[in-house]
Amino acid sequence: MVRYRRNKVKGGTYFFTVVLKDRGSKFFVEHIDLLRSVFKTVCKEKPFEIIAMVVLPDHLHSVWRLPEEDDDYSGRWKSIKSKFSRELVKKGVPVPKNIKGEYFLWQRRYWEHTIRNDEDLQMHGDYIHYNPVKHGYVKQVKGWPHSSFHRYVRVGLLNIDWGSMMVLDDRNEFGE
After folding, report:
1. Tens digit of pLDDT for each residue in 20-79?
2. Is residue 12 scored above 80 in pLDDT?
3. What predicted TM-score, i.e. pTM, was given to this entire model?
4. Beta carbons of 57 and 29 less than 8 angstroms apart
5. DSSP characters over 37-83
6. What strand order describes the sheet that includes 59-65?
7. Is the CATH number 3.30.70.1290 carried by domain 13-154?
8. Which residues pair with 31 in a beta bridge?
9. Helix orientation angle between 73-90 and 32-45, rounded to the nearest 10 degrees
10. Residue ranges per domain, the chain?
């Protein structure tokens, strides 16, 4: 069995890509309010800061900062995945199961990258905010509603037309 090695840094900042099993699914945007609620619940139970995030139909990207002396991002993802799946079922949404009877909604693994410095953080934040344009969901960053971009504009970190003339090169794939 392959043993995955994750970089664990207490109080670290991490970039994640988390994907649904069915890449054609729209579960995330169809149930965005439930996803937000699950994130808020897990954040209260096991605090962390969401620095940047975008939710697309079948995957999401996020940058988190964990509290000092805490490196358990995997426990948080386990809680988010589990709670979201169970809440969907409670709402009567048909969620497929595998032959073991486990919910077959999420890809088993996720991409994780430890943010090294401010430049790395900005690069990943830019990638997150530009991602809906990259995937062709909108023509401008401001057009995608499920993004921390709008918070960045509200607090003055970015202007509303940010990314309109931006082109990311092919090296910026970050785990997709």
Report:
1. 998 888 989 999 999 999 999 999 999 999 999 999 999 999 999 999 999 999 999 999
2. yes
3. 0.89
4. yes
5. HHHHHHHHHS--EEEEEEE-SSEEEEEEEPPTT---HHHHHHHHHHH
6. 49-55, 59-65, 13-19, 111-114
7. yes
8. none
9. 140
10. 13-154
